[in-house]
Amino acid sequence: MISEKDIWSALEEVMDPEIPTISMVDLGIITGIDVKDGGNSVKVNMTPTFSGCPALRMMEDLVKERLQKMDIPHIEVETTFDVAWTTDRITEKGRQALLKHGLAPPVEKRDGYIELDVLSDVACPHCGSRNTEMKTPFGPTLCKAMHYCNNCLQAFEQFKPVF
Amino acid sequence: MSEQLHIKEFLYKMADDLLILGHRNSEWTGFGPLLEEDIAFSSMAQDKVGQSLALYTILNQMGEQDPDTIAFMRNANQFHCSHLVEQPNGEYDFSLVRHFLYDHADYLRFEALANTNFPPLGKVARKFKGEVKYHVFHGDTFLMKLGNGNEESHTRMQNSLNNTFNLALGIFEPSPYEEQLIADGVFIGEKALQERWLEAISPVIQKAGLTLPAQSTWQPVYGGRKGQHTEYLQPLLDEMTEVFRIDPGAEW
User: Fold this and answer.
1) ipTM of the complex model
2) CB distance from A160 to chain B under 8 Å?
3) Which of A13, B84, B112, B210 has the most CB atoms within 10 Å of its CB?
């Protein structure tokens, strides 16, 4: 019989369509799994990273497709704002996965509130130097900001912190 | 659901501002004065249109039509957006000043709404706040850069500020349900929001070497919230809905 744990494990194999090193689970967008009717009915709750994220529907479909492979008769995927996604929902494993993709992980929330000057305190994913600056908070996708490393003189992207 | 008319009116005006300004921002795609600005305005467009969808979805849950119908099937006089957001993009300095003035108001609006007594709105407002913070950061950065730039950039920014300020005051046009919204704990009210906004923008304008227009010249441009619009809104809607009207069931 399929358990909630099985579903979590399965969803760890579903990768973000734009950052293929991080799973939906490690990205923190799966907010709840409800297994009912002896495993015949599964509901997955999700929360959007950004309100305007165009990959949202695709992510829902990827989750559905993965569950269909498990021969679950009734599958429901719902995205709501009930649990607000913040970058603190990204797991430690997820932060490593971002780095692996060449993206600086987001700054973690400190003492409740982040001021914008803290956002520039980011380690370069190429050389590790903190002698970096944010060039623009808008990058190739909504979740990325553009930075520049004054040490290795390379531009890099950061998965930008959102709280 | 008619007892929630005050909340519906409130949601419509916020969502319509976001949709229309989102569309205007998207018009910079491919035309930004530099690549980073092209991307910035396009990203802000994406955020705003996404946020309008979240608000239209709440309206739909309250018994209004589905979000696509609301967004694409109304005429100009059924829109509740402010005149500020429907103005054509004009020169980059105007778009930038509008974005600076509007996004400060929006950030403070969502910050206040994080504590609303209307939970569906509270949930999305808390989310939007984190997103709009970057819009405010961007607006502040460029206002200061160009305000303190060279003579031409300074003059352009000051002129745009002078010409845009009364339109921006129109954001705070009071709703007929103002007192009810405040009494129900839904919102702090437009008057209180305007005060917070002035407190927030004044120091940035000063740091940018610019001057806020004298209070004696303030004449808020109202009417948008009541469905009275400039000649610029209908052509925008015609363009925005062109594909939808040709093929309402189109998927892409």
Assistant:
1) 0.87
2) yes
3) B84
